[in-house]
Amino acid sequence: MDNAQPTAETQIRQHAIALAALAHNGLVFSTDVFDRQRYEQAKQIATDLLALISNGTLEDLHKNVFLEHGYMTPKVDVRGGVFDDKGRILLIRDRSDEKWTLPGGWCDVLEPPSLAVEREVHEESGITVRARKLVALHDRDVQGHQPAFPYHVYKLFFLCETISHGQPSPVETMEVGWFNVDELPELSTTRVLDAQIQLLHEHWNKPDLPTMFD
């Protein structure tokens, strides 16, 4: 985790996201016509601020920032740590950037996180697993993932036990492989960091370690 002082761009992004959440949540609860006008103005200001530090269009930013219809909360991403009997970790090569990552993705609505990670691991690797332990609940921004998103994300890392093997989905996954944690391929750091894989391996070796957070 990077302890350096945030750049001006990072601070603008953080303030814009906070302003966007304030405006969005105000619109959810406010019935006063004048207050709603002010919240709409604040919403537009937040989008304009994000546009200053982003390559996306205003339309795309508006769609990404204001994803929810109710009270705005962080999105939830789940990742599965699966090890073989040699202590090698399962990674998949994602088609979007052709780099390697832990299998995982967004939780679906009404889907428990443990079932979400089991589903994602199976879809992307073909391996059926059971989630056995929540190793870490990380704030994506605090951990320093890049590039920064125009919304807030929590990342849940689970240790998973292999139940059976199958075929991965060819739509999302280019390759599936098992790697020693000290000989990792190029990682998709927007999804997973080396330190997070090392943390999973540490918990695989010592299952009684406490869950990490932030």
Automatic annotation (TrEMBL):
> Sorted alphabetically, which keywords does the UniProt record give?
Hydrolase
List the source organism: Nocardia asteroides NBRC 15531
GO MF term set = hydrolase activity
* Identification of the protein by name: Nudix hydrolase domain-containing protein
According to the entry, every stretch annotated as the Nudix hydrolase domain falls at: 73-201
Q: Which domain of life is it from?
A: Bacteria
Q: Respond yes or no to whether keyword Chaperone is given for this record.
A: no
Taking the record's annotation, the residue ranges forming a coiled coil are none
- Indicate yes or no for the key word Transcription: no
Q: Which InterPro entries match?
A: NUDIX_hydrolase-like_dom_sf, NUDIX_hydrolase_CS, NUDIX_hydrolase_dom, UDP-X_N
Cofactor(s) in the UniProt record: Mg(2+)
